[in-house]
Amino acid sequence: MAKSKTIFVCNECGYESAKWLGKCPGCNSWNSFFEQKVVESKNSILKPEDKKRNKPQKLNSYEAKQTFRTSTGFEELDRVLGGGLVKGSLILLGGEPGIGKSTLILQICDKVKGEGKVLYVSGEESAEQIKFRADRLGINNEDILFLGETDIDIVNQAIIDINPKLVIIDSIQTMYSDELSAAAGSVSQVREITSQIMRICKSREITTIIIGHVTKDGNIAGPRVLEHMVDTVLYLEGERYFSYRILRGVKNRFGSTNEIGMFEMKEKGMTEILNPSDVLISEREDNPAGSCIVSCMEGTRPILVELQALTTQSIFGIPKRTANGVDYNRLALLIAVMEKKAGLMLGSQDVYLNVVGGLRINEPSIDLGMILVTASIYKNIPIPKDMVIMGEVGLTGEVRKINLIEKRLKEAEKLGFKTCIIPESNKKVLQDKFKLDIIGVKNVNEAMKKVGF
C-alpha cells in the first residue's frame, strides 16, 4: 500500500518543510508556503526482473540516430533551434507580458501547415480571442485545434486522443492538477505538470512548446528545475515600445546556445530580420559628434550597431552616469580609464550612453567604441561615418585582442564601410585580404590619435 503524507513547499524557491512557516528559510519570502501531498511507496526496492532490464551497456554499442527536424517557417528561429523543431522535443519560451510570445507561436502553428495536426492549449485566452488574433495575422491552417482548458488531466487525454505533431501550452503557470492542493503556478504544480507533459509527449514523439511567464527579474517564473527538464529554453527579449525583438537561446540540447534570431513586430505579426546590421544603422544619415558604429557578436553572427553618447556639465556635486543597452559598471570603469590614461576630465560631466534600437550588448569588444564615442561628444569632434570600431580595453588603457575578427570585418565590408580600427594583436594574425583600411592600435591614446582627437 502507498502511504501519503503532507509537506509544505515554498512557492518561490521550492524549499520543503514538515510544517507551515510564515517566512521561508531558503529565500526569506513571507507567506509563500503551500500544502502538498506526497505519496511514498513502501516497496522502493527494484524487483529482480527490473534489475535485469537495467543492466549497464557499453556506450559504443548504441547507434546514434540522425535527429529529425521540422522547419518552423522562420529562418531566424530555425537557426536558434539548431535547424528546426526536433521531433519529440520540449521547448520552453519565456518573455515579458506583451512582448509577442503568443503571436510568434500562432504564426509557427500556421507555417507548419501540412506537417500534421496542431493542438493549441490555452489557459489564459478564450477561443474567440485566439480566433481574433489569428484573423489579424492571416492564419489559415485547418489543422489547428484549440482547447481552452487548465486541468492537466483533460489536456493529457486530448493529447492522447488527437495524437498531434505539435502541442502548444499557453501558459504552463495556468495549468493545475487535482492531485496537488497547491495553487496553479506554484512550484509543485509547475514541476508536476511539466513532468506529465514531458512523459506523454516524449513517449509519442510529439514536439511541445511551453510558454512560461517571467518574474520582475526577467527569469522564467516557477522552479529552476523547469529549465532543466526541457530540451530547449528560449527568451524573447526587447523593449515593449520598440518594434525589434530578439529571440535568444539559453539552453539547447540539439544545437548551439549562442545563437539569436531578430524579429520586428508589425501589424501582421512577427517579421524576421535577415540582416540586422543593415536595419540598425539604416537611419544614420548625417555624421554628428557622439555617434559611432561598433561590431558585436551574437552567437556566430556579427552585428553592427550604433552607439550614441552625450556629456553635459553636471549641476550637482556627484556626476550622473546613465547606460542604456550596456552594463552600467562597465561604463563607469571605462570613464575611469579615460580620465587616468587619456586625460579626459569627465569628473564634472554627466555621461549618457545609448545603444540604438533597444538592443543590449554585454560583449567587451565594444569597449573601444564606448571610449571613442564619449571622447567624440566631449571634444565635439565627429567620428568618420564610414568607420567601424572594435576592441576590448583593459584597466591600463591597452586595447586587447577580440575573437572572430575576420567575421566582423567581412560584415563591415559587406555593408560598405571603408575603415576599421581593431586591436594591433588582431591585425598581426589576419589571414584574409580585405578592401577595408584596417588600422591596428595598441592603446586608447593611439586610437584617439588615429580618429583625430
List descriptors.
7-stranded mixed beta sheet; alpha/beta; 9-stranded mixed beta sheet; 27% helix
Description:
This protein is an alpha/beta fold. It is built from 13 helices and 23 strands. A nine-stranded mixed beta sheet has the order 8-7-9-10-6-11-12-13-14, sandwiched between helices. Helix 5 packs parallel to helix 6. The chain starts with a strand and ends with a helix. Residues 41-46 have low confidence and may be disordered.
Quick structural gist:
27% of the residues lie in helices and 28% in strands. With 453 residues, it is an alpha/beta fold.
- Basic shape: globular
Strand order of the largest sheet: 8-7-9-10-6-11-12-13-14
Distance between the termini: 82 Å
Relative strand content: 25-35%
How many separate helices? 13
Residues in helices, as a percent range: 25-40%
Number of strands: 23
Global structural class: alpha/beta
Mean pLDDT: 87
SSE inventory with pairings:
Elements: E1 2-10, E2 16-17, E3 33-41, H1 48-53, E4 69-70, H2 75-81, E5 85-86, E6 90-95, H3 101-111, E7 118-122, H4 127-137, E8 144-148, H5 152-162, E9 166-170, H6 187-204, E10 207-212, H7 225-229, E11 232-237, E12 244-252, E13 260-266, E14 269-272, H8 276-280, E15 291-298, E16 301-313, E17 321-324, H9 328-341, E18 349-355, H10 367-379, E19 387-389, E20 392-393, E21 399-400, H11 405-414, E22 419-423, H12 424-428, E23 437-441, H13 444-451
Helix pairs in contact: 5-6, 9-10, 10-13
